[in-house]
Amino acid sequence: SLCLAVAVTVVAALAPACEGFYLPGVAPQDFSRGDEVQPRVGRVSSAKTHIPFDYYELPLCDPAGKPKDAPANLGEILSADRYHSAPFQLAALVNETCRTMCDFPHTQKAVRLRSALIMDAYDVRIRIDNMPAMYLEAKPTRNEVTLETEIRLEAPKEIGYPLGSIRIIEGKRTMVVHNHITLWIQYHMVDSPQARGKKARIISVYVTTTTYDSSDPSTWQENCKQASSSPFQNVVAPQLASKPTRMSYSVRWVETSNRWATRWDSILQMDSYEHETNWSSLINTILLLLLLGFLVAVIILRAVKNDFAALREFEGDDMGAEDASNVVWKKLARDVFRQPRRLFLLSVLYGNGAQLLAMLGMQMFFALLGFYSPSNRGSFLTYSLIGYAFLAVVGGRAASRLYGCFPDEMNRRKLVVATATLIPGTVFGAFFLIDLVLWAKGSSGATPFLTLLFIMFLWFGVTLPLTFLGSYLGFKKPYEFPIKPARIPRLVPQKTCFMSLPVLATFAGLTLYSMMFIQVFQVVQKVWLHQFVYMFGFLFLSGTFFLVGCIEITIIAVYLTLSYEDYHWWWRAFLVPFSSGIFMFLGTIIYQAMLTNELFDNVQFVTVWMMSSYLGMSCLAVSLIAGAVGLWSSIWFTTVIYSRCKPD
User: Fold this and answer.
1) Based on the number of CB atoms within 10 Å of its own CB, is 420 exposed (0-12), middle (13-18) or buried (19 or more)?
2) Which candidate, 28, 249, 269, 606, has a CA 20 to 30 Å from the CA of 616?
3) What stretches of 48-171 adopt beta strand conformation (E)?
4) Phi/psi of residue 270, each to 5°?
5) Residues forming a β-bridge with 174
6) Is the CB of residue 250 less than 8 Å from the CB of residue 99?
7) From CA 94, how far away is CA 35, in angstroms rounded?
């Protein structure tokens, strides 16, 4: 009942956070009629290939002069989300119709490249006043469907407009270029005391596309007006990718009652299906935690209480023999705190798990407060890397506290270096290999050399020294155990197969994975489809329940291990919850394969390998956090029960 009360209290307190509020990352900008509005173009990317390209590196529109680069932080650079000034200009509150943007280069190489981009479903990203242009499939019309009605019907989540499409023309699959875009800009009028009047604030931006034959200079404008004014797509002949192409655009300013402070709500809000699945998942997780808590209370706490009662009875009996009780785990008092095998590796993994947990805890705290606004793109990734580097003091302290409680081990300097380099080096090696592949393909997703140098500085200039500092603090105060181990270890009896590590890890991994798989699938789907992920409230709740489940399952596994006279519980306490990340990786790989087979044809091996590598890094982080929490809870549990035990 106590667990249920705590869970319900936490859910009720954090329910508003699940809606995702934020502190704006930029101040509102007001426009008068005719003011210049600078649009920006970003990467040209595909949810099918995940190999992005810079807009101006492709045979599309060339800039008028040198394009101005928008300021980018570390997260934007690593995610290739950089923007430049667009090859066209806008005027506030001024509608435009069929304005020429540019003529695409018409060479054989350029045509082949554009056709390949259309085949792989590449999208062009546009931002206006820091708002992304969301793609609408259907064009709003004045008489039939308004813009707000179309937005409500489609609930657009796709960022940017498709470069082209494949149509069946005369029985053949033909590449068609979307050579006309219409920008639908919603604005809200506000009073401006400085200008003594009203000014406009941009609320949202949507984009629709159409295609028309622009190869004939004498008829392109008439075709453009006819195609852009009709709600239907097949009014005029389409623009074939093999013909000379002129890119044009129209602008429609639409007033709305929505205010600037809520302009991200329509993009970030979840639909009813996502809300229902997330809440049902949380309720199922709470019920599962209650079941595990009941097992901990009945099987463990009650058993330990009876064991101590039996110990007091036999200790008070003058006729008691050496150990006449049936308290099995008490027999291991002189062995339970014996140095585990491969203590060095266990300490390194434990320290990295503690460091990751501290970083994610800090990030979730600020995310729930709303500091990570979508207006400030890349901030979450930026501060995650910087926070991980500066929280190396936590990882060094945790690793040294475990390693230092066994004085026979003196490789302290090697421990510090391994804690700071083993896991980060493995992840950096995988990231660098992906970077080399992107560089070989000419992708803008390849990280620049200066950014790699900055990451190396964070690694060796910040993480390594702070790991030494944390290790110094940890070695000064290692874990203290109530009983010293005997010189001669006990023999461990043979156990049944049901108590083997693979069986326990399988049960624990599947149970823990079931607590988070809904949220994991949703995040993977949104990341794969290039959609916004803004569900920090649900992620915090499911992550908290996941950590509680790690503690409960690990305590059960350790108690069962000790009950079978096996004092080798250290690695079990780490690997049993660690297995949850393995099952998360396998389950998500299967879901990823099903998702790609359903949405795309002929997905490249490079794309699957790249996304699987990113997924593997994420699951490794989850495994390390779960293992660190499980080992810490087991150290606390064994210290508590054996502190009241008097060994023979």
Assistant:
1) buried
2) 269
3) 53-54, 84-85, 90-91, 96-103, 122-128, 131-135, 161-162, 164-169
4) -85, 155
5) 167
6) yes
7) 9
The CA distances from residue 174 to 241, 243, 510, 533, in Å, are 8, 12, 47, 35
| pLDDT tens-digit readout, 412-469 | 889 999 999 999 999 999 999 999 999 999 999 999 999 999 999 999 999 999 999 9
Asked whether the beta carbons of 424 and 494 are under 8 A apart, the reply is no
Neighbours of 301 (CB within 10 A): 13
What is the torsion angle, in degrees rounded to the nearest 10, for the CA atoms of residue 608, residue 613, residue 615 and residue 621?
180
* Residue type for position 390: F
The per-residue pLDDT for 154 is: 77
Query: Rounded CA gap, 535 and 546, in Å?
Result: 16
CA-CA-CA-CA torsion sign (142, 146, 150, 156) = positive
Rounded-to-integer distance, Cα 66 and Cα 53, Å: 18
The pLDDT value given to residue 153: 76
The token duo for 199 is: 């000014």
Radius of gyration of the chain (CA): 30
What's the pLDDT score for residue 473? 93
462: DSSP letter: I
Residue with tokens 């045509």: 111
Q: Is residue 85 within 8 Å of 61, Cβ to Cβ?
A: no
Distance CA 453, CA 473 (A): 29
How far apart CA 439 and CA 446 sit, in angstroms, is 5
Residue by residue, DSSP assigns 257-294 as S--GGGTTHHHHPPPHHHHHHHHHHHHHHHHHHHHHHH
Closest Cα to residue 344, out of 280, 291, 417?
Answer: 417
Query: What pLDDT shows up at residue 334?
Result: 78
To the question of pTM greater than 0.85 for the whole model, the response is yes
Q: In the structure encoding, which two tokens stand for residue 516, read together?
A: 């988070």
For the four alpha carbons of 511, 513, 516 and 518, in that order, the dihedral sign comes to negative
Rounded Cα distance between 627 and 403, Å, is 16
Determine the pLDDT at residue 327: 63
pLDDT given for residue 332 in this prediction: 75
Q: How far is CA 102 from the centre of its chain?
A: 38
Tell which residue, 437, 439, 459, 457, has the closest CA to residue 448.
439
Which two tokens mark 237?
A: 């002949």
Tell me if 367 sits within 8 A of 380, measured CB to CB: yes
- What values do phi and psi take at 420, rounded to 5? -85, -15
Contact present, 420 and 467 (Cβ < 8 Å) = yes
DSSP 3-state assignment of 599?
A: helix
Low-confidence ranges of the chain (pLDDT < 70): 1-26, 141-145, 193-196, 230-234, 299-327, 408-409, 645-648
Given this model, what pLDDT does residue 215 score? 87
Overall size of the chain counted in residues: 648
Which single residue is written with the structure tokens 């699957």? 608
Q: Which class for 293: exposed (0-12), middle (13-18), buried (19 or more C-beta within 10 A)?
A: buried
Residues 566 and 558: their CA atoms lie apart, in Å, by 9
